[in-house]
Amino acid sequence: MKIKRLGLEHPNAIVAGVHAEEITGRNKIPEALAKQIGILTGLEVDKEIVQKTRAQRTGKGEIYRLAHRPAFDGKVQAGRDYILIDDVISKGGTLNELKFYIEQNGGKVVQMVVAGAGRYGTNIALTEKTKTEIISMYGTIALHEFLKEHDIYAGNIGYLTESEARRIMAAGPLNETRNRIFTCGQAGGA
């Protein structure tokens, strides 16, 4: 999608970059991209929503990413559309957590824009096939409780990324995944 078209297709949207703390410090690239997109489109740029945890997930495996969830804070303008911006997307979890935060606080995410994508970065949304498989494998109630227990999208299965769902299924029984998440959670602070 051409950047200038974002302003035409979503004229009242707010551009929100992922303001994240990484091991090396604040990732300033998403903020700079959001600002530039705001200039090119004439859209408002959010400066209030920030990542409040240091998940430090860059370069980490999928179980680590499940154990160390980014959390966001800041005012969401209820009823407004949001366009999310990040520099690189690898598994989609950070953008999805930001989307979840915005939508739980009354906003609506209409678009995500990234400068680069990893191997599975372009397949963020959980496919119906994978959703059916994971529910068939664990059951809706057990999966909901598992996600809620680990503070993953407040237990909302529909917010899982394709990569997250596949990682959970590949780990086998939920108890095994639970133990691996617990071990990863103890290995480093989030």
Question: Could you list some keywords that capture this structure?
Answer:
alpha/beta; two-stranded antiparallel ribbon; 2 domains; four-stranded parallel sheet; globular; Rossmann fold; 190 residues
Query: What's the rounded overall pLDDT mean?
Result: 85
* Tally of contiguous helical segments: 8
Q: What percentage of residues falls in helices of 4 or more residues?
A: 40-55%
Q: Tell me the fraction of residues in β-strands, as a range.
A: 15-25%
Number of strands: 8
Low-confidence residue ranges = none
In CATH terms, what is the fold-level topology of the largest domain?
Answer: Rossmann fold
Describe the structure.
With 190 residues, the chain is an alpha/beta fold. It folds into two domains: 115 residues, Rossmann fold, CATH 3.40.50; 60 residues, no CATH class. It contains eight helices and eight strands. A four-stranded parallel beta sheet has the order 4-1-7-8, sandwiched between helices. It has a two-stranded antiparallel sheet with strand order 2-3. Helix 5 crosses helix 6 and helix 5 packs parallel to helix 7. The mean pLDDT is 85.
